[in-house]
UniProtKB/TrEMBL annotation:
Residues 18-130 form the Arf-GAP domain. The keyword Zinc-finger applies. It holds the Pfam family ArfGap. GO terms for molecular function: GTPase activator activity; zinc ion binding. This is ArfGap-domain-containing protein. It comes from Piromyces finnis. Keywords: GTPase activation, Metal-binding, Zinc, Zinc-finger. InterPro entries: ARF_GTPase-activating, ARFGAP/RecO, ArfGAP_dom, ArfGAP_dom_sf.
């Protein structure tokens, strides 16, 4: 494969990955930051499988890459493995694990994020589950549709 062909292939792959991420972030549970619930997150922690806002991405970066690996949805290059992890998790499934025993949030958002991911304060088990074993997000519109037409 020539260098030019390789570059074109790489560019096409990046465009596909960006399109996939843009579709994932449109899903109901991903439309808001996984941590502070701000609208329209444009960043992600690919190893945690979550979409986050720019403010929370700064806290994630400060924890170190051994805890959270942050990338821009639009500006960075993603590997197929990173995309697959985002597809497997998403905010809903990730928060089922990271917020399993949560009773109330800390108002200090940096302390809250560190408690959640660095210190694993709200998890039931330190063993991170296979995301395929967790329930999928419930589509409320679909449930309303079913109730309206079939009951």
């Amino acid at each position: 494969m020539s260098t030019r062909t390789a570059r074109q292939s790489s560019k096409q792959q990046n465009e596909r990955h960006t399109a996939i991420l843009r579709e994932l972030v449109k899903q109901p549970s991903n439309r808001r930051c996984a941590d502070c619930k701000r609208n329209d997150p444009r960043w992600a922690s690919w190893n945690l499988g979550i979409f986050i806002c720019i403010r929370c991405s700064g806290v994630h970066r400060s924890m170190g890459t051994h805890i959270s690996k942050v990338k821009s949805i639009d500006l960075d290059t993603w590997t197929p493995e990173q995309i697959e992890n985002m597809k497997k998790w998403g905010n809903y499934k990730a928060n089922l694990y990271w917020e399993a025993t949560l009773t109330e949030r800390d108002n200090n958002f940096e302390r809250w994020i560190r408690s959640k991911y660095e210190f694993k304060r709200f998890v039931k088990s330190n063993d991170i589950p296979d995301p395929d074993t967790l329930p999928n997000e419930v589509n409320l519109r679909y449930i309303i549709y079913l109730l309206f037409f079939y009951i």
